Amino acid sequence: MSPGVLNTIEVVLNGLMSGVLYSLVALGFVLIFKASGIFNYAQGVMALFAALTLVGFQTGQVPFAHLLNAVFGTDYHHWSSGMHHAAAIALTLLVMVGFAFLVEKLVLRHLVNQAPIILFMATIGLAFFMEGVGDLMWGPDLKALDIGLPSGGSLWWEEVTRAWAAPGAEYYGMYIDVLDVWATVIALALVAALTVFSQYTRTGRALRAVADDHQAALSVGISLRAIWVIVWSIAGMVALVAGIMWGAKSGVQFSLSLIALKALPVLILGGFTSIPGAIIGGLIIGVGEKLFEYTVGPMIGGATENWFAYVLALFFLMFRPQGLFGDKIIERV
Amino acid sequence: MNALPDSAAPLLEAKDISLSFGGVSALTGVDCDIREGEIRAIIGPNGAGKSSMLNVINGFYHPQKGEVWFRGEKRGKLKPFQIARQGIARTFQNIALFKGMSTLDNIMTGRITRMRAGLLWQALWHGPALREELEHREAAERIIDFLEIQSIRKTPVGRLPYGLQKRVELGRALAAESKLLLLDEPMAGMNLEEKEDMCRFILDAGAQFGATIALIEHDMGVVMDLADRVMVLDYGRKIADGAPDEIRNDQLVIDAYLGAAVQE
Question: How many CB atoms lie within 10 A of CB B96?
């Protein structure tokens, strides 16, 4: 194979792997949107908050340390030297479940039967609130997140691919970050587990039932509130995984919450109501923006990754506004 | 008005129910009792408050006045899902199925109140959750056999024709093995053959699954054949209550609803 073809393959592979992460964030949106018709603007901030909390637990930070020190004149920052990754992840999950409870109790419960735009506004408020609480709890500084996943380029893959090139060609092998591979595997496992759970268990069926018809769900004995707590907990779990992956790549900082915006074009492509749509949409955006940057980017001065996804989404809106897999809304007059 | 001897204890009693939406009153001082094991029909012109009555019984509406007694106990202000868990299942006038789910999944969801396994076991798909799943799958299959819908077991219900959707909805309500089954116009929009099938299923459901049934229906032939007792509503008030034969000959009912046709 010529180096050009190999380079293209490398770009596609890297695109697929970053696409999986987009899918993961989009999945959080789809879960909540299906079950409650809410577009949860706070999904990205949930990822940031989960990552912050995880790092906080890992390094043994005292939550609200600055606030407490300011009020009581103390000087505590760490209550221990930290804890094991697994314990920190488990605790963070608990925090996200607790967060789901609070959202249901303090926000959703009071907004039943409100127009979707009201609920959307509420989630914007929630996003700002969480951002503030995250800062206050764990401090605003950039943090490194390391849960012991291997990272760095894969030498083995470089060796293997170097052999694919024609003999004598100037080619040094493909670069693939092992962390990306791990992220892909974990994301795929999570998606598979969620799919199986929603297909074959009582709670999974209840989730789908609520997504289909609230009234009918009530009539067979499903508590909407319980389902909302479960859905927001699952969205919190997805946010945690996304937060870990993005945080491990680029550190835990405010910009993490902006990856949520990348999920928007993914949703427009895949459809707001489709789990397969979120996955495929994420892959298309991931591959699309990398390929575009690789082929067209150099001609127009690069940095196309910042806007390519949105332009692609714009085109989709013109021709297929319900997305690839979304439900077509038919208004009968 | 009630001429039947009180042979069976009432399973459900709604006493002096008044329900209004703003200034519009949907029900005014309606008493309604449903006895164990009977098929109870509610009839009346459109807008008479029949569906409102069902909605009060299953808790979608809370009446401003009146009490509901179920299985000998006064019911507090419960949510619809809590009432479903107490043993009241229902179908809807304009079909409310889980359209994206298969027939089997719809019926399995109907059994949700009977399933207990914890979230963790479900997540692991093991132990009690797996056992329970198999057990309920068998029960769901019995209902599928009973309603003769084996061939559409895996079809998403949104794709089924109207008559079959109605049947699946009955199946979902039956699946809960509830004490009381509320059917809101189970035969609306069906052809003659489908109606006959549905009649048979409703009669057999009473016998096989031991359910007490309250139904709303406009087809007088069906009502007179099926029902043990009939209650007639008009403008939110009860104007008659009794055996089908009495209702057929009640002058008030003829004037308000039946018209001359049934008189012959």
Answer: 21
Residues A85 and B105: their CA atoms lie apart, in Å, by 39
CA of B137 vs chain A CAs: smallest distance (Å): 11
Cβ of A221 and B85 within 8 Å?
A: yes
Q: What count of CB pairs under 8 Å joins A to B? A: 90
A201–B172 CB contact, under 8 Å? no
Neighbours of A113 (CB within 10 A): 6
Q: Say what the pLDDT of residue B4 is.
A: 46
Residues of B in contact with A217 (CB under 8 A): 81, 98
Residue B129 touches partner A, C-beta closer than 8 Å: yes
Q: Decide yes or no: CATH 1.10.3470 for domain A3-319.
A: yes
Q: What SS3 state is found at B32?
A: strand
The whole-number pLDDT of residue B263 equals 46
Q: CATH 3.30.390.50: does it fit domain B10-87+178-263? A: no
C-alpha distance from residue A75 to each of A62, A70, A71, A132, A195 (Å): 11, 9, 11, 22, 47
Q: Is B182 left (phi over 0), alpha (psi -120 to 50) or beta?
A: beta
Q: Is the ipTM of this complex over 0.90?
A: no
The domain spans of chain A are 3-319
The pairing of strands B39-43 and B73-74 is unpaired
Written as one string, the DSSP assignment of B40-70 is EEEE-STTSSHHHHHHHHTTSS--SEEEEEE
Q: Determine contact: B109 vs chain A, CB below 8 A.
A: yes
State the pTM of this model. Answer: 0.84
Per DSSP bridges, beta strands B212-216 and B65-70 are unpaired
8 Å CB contact of A201 and B122 = yes
The per-residue pLDDT for range A286-332, each reduced to its tens digit, is 999 999 999 998 999 888 888 999 999 999 888 888 888 776 666 55
